[in-house]
Amino acid sequence: MSTTFGSCFAGGSYRRCAQDSVPFLFTNEIADILLKACVFRREYYNETFLRDLLDLRDPTLMPVQIKFVDKLYQVGKLPHGMYTEWPLKP
User: Fold this and answer.
1) How buried is residue 26: exposed, middle or buried, by Cβ count under 10 Å (0-12/13-18/19+)?
2) How far separated are the first and last CA of the chain, in Å rounded?
3) pLDDT tens digits for 6-23?
């Protein structure tokens, strides 16, 4: 898996995090660094990364965003409550 989310967890903005998710479209895999962050940097992951990802409203990234969020939910890395409140879920 790639480490495309490095900038997210090194203090990058949510827009940069969302742009970094574009490779997910081609690999359909969640980056290792993201999987590690949800364990080792849980507070940042839940309070900043997920909220910013779910609040993103960039039309050029929306198809990737929806697929990525669904994948996070399917593998148990997105809390059910956050997912059910997300207005863009399919």
Assistant:
1) exposed
2) 26
3) 445 444 555 556 555 666
